[in-house]
Amino acid sequence: MNIFKLISTPTLFALTIFSLVLITACENPASDDEHEHIEPAGLQLKYNGEVLFEYADGTLTERKHMHLHVGEEYLFKVELIGEHGEHIHGDQFGNDYFLDWEIENEEVLQIHQHQEDGPWSFHVTGVAEGESKVQLMLMHGSKDHAHPHLQTPPVEAEEAIELHIEGENGSTHQHS
């Protein structure tokens, strides 16, 4: 008995198309921008290569105070870390991952990015004397429909990242 005579031509055609779609979908990624889903466990906020803040396992595990000055601009870098403390390179993330932030008081400091510094760096500018807390977030998705994959403590929290802005013409001062 011939099996092809038992299956109608439209059914055989549908099974062939379904099989091709299934095989093709498993072998080819949906897009070139698709990367393995990475879940960092924390991040380090660095200035001039020195870790000022490290956030891991839900808490700030390292915190150094850095006094910034009105009218000055400072370049910070974020490095993402894995669950075992290893650094996760930014190129492991697709173009749909980006940094975002919330600033407690934009009258004291402002944050902005320059494309030439890359997606994991940003500038802080001291606007006026005072203090302001900042929450950093690793976002995933489009700018309009993104969700956070990692967040430092919110600006309302006592343990949030806090930056101090001093008057003009001073030098930065760090203390632990």
> How would you classify the helix and strand content by structural class?
mainly beta
Termini gap:
84 Å
How would the global form be characterised?
Answer: elongated
Task: Figure out the total of helices.
Answer: 2
> β content, as a range?
35-45%
The protein's oligomeric status is single chain
Tell me the Rg in angstroms.
24 Å
The largest pleated sheet is described as: 7 strands, antiparallel
Q: Unreliable stretches, pLDDT < 50, 5 or more residues?
A: 20-35, 171-176
H/E topology pattern = HHEEEEEEEEEEEEE
Residue-averaged pLDDT: 80
Number of strands: 13
Residues in helices, as a percent range: 10-25%
Describe the structure.
With 176 residues, this protein is mainly β. Helix content is 13%, strand content 43%. The chain has helices spanning 3-6, 9-27, and strands spanning 42-47, 50-56, 59-63, 65-69, 73-81, 87-88, 97-103, 109-112, 121-126, 130-140, 147-151, 161-166, 173-175. The strands form 2 sheets. Strands 1, 2, 3, 5, 6, 8 and 9 form a 7-stranded antiparallel sheet that branches. Mean pLDDT is 80; it is low at 20-35 and 171-176.
